[in-house]
């Protein structure tokens, strides 16, 4: 692609400057690479409210074992 060649062209209609600006903005946003979202840090307070089900498997009596001290 040469420096003189346009990136896109309007093939029908006569867009206004505002419409062209909106089109360019939409193209730039869609072609920009996205970064992976940062992992959310869970506070110790929030973590304490979660059930401690590590190591418990779905098996007969698991509900009873979940309430027993470890």
Automatic annotation (TrEMBL):
Originating species: Micromonospora globispora
GO terms of molecular function: acetyl-CoA carboxylase activity; propionyl-CoA carboxylase activity
InterPro entries per record: ACC_epsilon
Protein name from the UniProt record: Acyl-CoA carboxylase subunit epsilon
Pfam families according to UniProt: ACC_epsilon
